[in-house]
Amino acid sequence: MLPTVSLIIPCYNEEKRIRTLLDALLAQTYPRALLDVTIADGLSQDGTRAVIAGFQREHPDLTIKVIDNQAQTIPAALNRAIDASAGELLIRLDAHSAPYPEYVEKAAAALVAGKAENVGGVWEIRPGAENGLAAAIAVAAAHPLGVGDALYRHAKAAAYVDTVPFGAFRRSLLDKIGKFDESLLSNEDYEFNTRIRQSGGRIWLDPQIRSIYFARATLGALARQYWRYGLWKFQMLRRYPATLRWRQALPPLFVLTVLVSLVLAAFLPLFGWLLTIILTAYFGVLLVAGAIKATRVNKLSLVLGLPLAIVTMHFSWGLGFLWSIFFGVKQP
Asked: According to a count of CB atoms within 10 Å of the terminal CB, is the N or C end of the chain lower?
């Protein structure tokens, strides 16, 4: 018999996106009688709950439970949703996502087949709004210059990896490694997967398991997102320094080089010239990348939009990381 599956979803002020996710869940090919949804809402101030309630009235055959996430953090939301659900398998999703119809079926099949302790797939990044800048942000979020070798953004073949977004795992796994770490306000998925690997488990990424992820719509929102990523990445690395990857080290090293060069240039002109060379090469590479991508997809806005988005990602992530090193973070 097929196992029961609980979808656990953190949510906050997602009035514009939550219906897209719910429609995608309704379209799943997995037997609906074996599927339930738990949404941990961080006390949304918009119409999120009204949208969910309307959906529940229209589709009472899909079991949906909405619970309060008083802590208003993602790892707390996941843990509260885990506690409130009952499925043998747990699949973590996001209110900014829309899984393909076969997502649950393929993830559950991989777990039942014993492929790994945690199973995930590939994100297809879509714009968060219908304008040129939002389109550029979506392209940047999947571009190698923006995310390096993160396979869940562009993998073509199945493989064992360090981490996956929106993982699927057995509830029994939590008895072995525990739930999500609520002291980390970001990087909770990576930290969870690190504990899986340290316990002897494996992480399986299959590009046939696909979901759409809607990127941030503005540079300001993108900057806040990547600042948070960098801020909490260092806190995670303090516990697991061996998990550092080159793509994670480059942004803070680059930002630190720029900042130090700026200070030294006030006293030694040589560093001013050095900084000019570094930034000219950096922006030159990004402009070329933007022009190439714009030509391939016939979108002129990417010529400048892609470099702007990648610069925002690099500097926000790097500054957040450095801030965390020198000033720490406020623990929840």
From this structure: N
Given 185, 217, 249, the domain boundary residue is 217
Instruction: Give 281-316 pLDDT, tens digit per residue.
Output: 999 999 999 999 999 999 999 999 999 999 999 999
Which residues are bridge partners to 240 per DSSP? none
Question: How far lies 170's CA from each of 88, 92, 127, 173, 187, in Å?
Answer: 6, 11, 32, 5, 21
pTM of the predicted model, to two decimals? Answer: 0.91
Alpha-carbon distance of 146 to 247, in angstroms, equals 9
8 A C-beta contact, residue 140 and residue 306 = yes
In a domain, 193, yes or no: yes
Q: Which residues contact 132 (CB under 8 A, 6 or more apart)?
A: 299, 301, 302, 305
Would you say residue 30 lies in a domain?
A: yes
Range of the domain at 195: 5-217
pLDDT at 153 (0 to 100): 64
- Specify if 48 maps to a domain: yes
Residues 197 and 303 occupy one common structural domain: no
Residue 10 lies in a domain: yes
* Together in a domain, 16 and 110: yes
**What b/e string do you get for 53-73 counting C-beta neighbours within 10 Å, with b at 16 or more?**
eebbeeeeebbbebeebebbb
Specify the DSSP element, H or E, that contains 224: helix 219-239
Residue count (the chain)? 332
